[in-house]
């Protein structure tokens, strides 16, 4: 439903030309929540803005719902954009208008008026828990409430796609959680396709089905969120995931121990597979680092262990046979 093919964008400035997007290929399926992560300057904002052509690529194709956005005449482009909602880091609300007027705004731009608009606005405010704030102005609301108004406005024209430009970056962790839960619900209830850009890996972990990692205007890694998080292939992805995590210290491992990273997914996360296998083959293990969490709702556990005092090979093959992914990390010095 969304396909970027060879999308390239250059910016010229006094300092010279800068390639913000370098032949990007991406494909987002209907109903997916697709995340694009990257550091500052990677090209995330430029990328998301090419989807509704707020930023027109210098080369490539942007196909949404089978239409090449680049081929549309101005009136057609305006109509296509109404089917693509967008929310922003700083909400971009009209401060002089009430909450209800903000939500009604895109409907009025579409030429709609009267009770139909009032009904639609009331429905949206109700759905987003904002009914009691209809007559207030944005300055009277908290950040999370303002973002909910942004979402209500983005949904006014019943879009198929919602673009989220760092939508939670200005919010505290609790409010971020609330907005992510809401996006998750809207994705499921309305089968809304969501594309979000963020520099927060936690956001991707919580809500995205797939993720692309952007670096210097290129996609360096792309895949199902769980695969990318548990088995990152590119150094840029590993570096972003390692932030805030303590790396395991191999020097603490017992000398001669066989180091391995074990990944448990789904229900096996909570099974005592490791101790069963260790008992059955007669090895000992020390846990050097560990984490149990969820990716897009699916539980996973990842442990780095050192096997000692027995047949580590047999332990690895039994764990593998039980569906645990084992990556050898060498021998402790
Ligand atoms: N309008 C513009 N004029 C000139 N250069 C631009 C413009 N917009 C973006 N750039 C440059 O393009 C590159 C990508 O910028 P972009 O804002 O897309 O990155 P980003 O990943 O969203 O970063 P951030 O998280 O800091 O917003 C940067 O080098 C930026 O300076």
TrEMBL record:
Q: Which GO terms describe its molecular function?
A: ATP binding; ATP hydrolysis activity
- Is Flavoprotein set as a keyword in this record? no
* Start and end residues of each ABC transporter domain: 2-241
Read off the Pfam families from this record.
ABC_tran (PF00005), NIL (PF09383)
Q: Report the record's Gene Ontology biological process terms.
A: amino acid transport
Q: Which InterPro entries match?
A: AAA+_ATPase, ABC_transporter-like_ATP-bd, ABC_transporter-like_CS, ACT-like_dom_sf, MetN_ABC, MetN_ABC_transporter-like, NIL_domain, P-loop_NTPase
GO cellular component term, pick one: plasma membrane
Database matches in PROSITE patterns: ABC_TRANSPORTER_1, ABC_TRANSPORTER_2
Q: Which keywords label this protein?
A: Amino-acid transport, ATP-binding, Cell membrane, Membrane, Nucleotide-binding, Translocase, Transport
Annotated Gene3D superfamilies: 3.30.70.260, P-loop containing nucleotide triphosphate hydrolases
Write the signal peptide boundaries. Answer: none
The function of this protein is:
Part of the ABC transporter FtsEX involved in cellular division. Important for assembly or stability of the septal ring.
* Family (UniProt): Belongs to the ABC transporter superfamily.
Protein name (Swiss-Prot/TrEMBL): Cell division ATP-binding protein FtsE
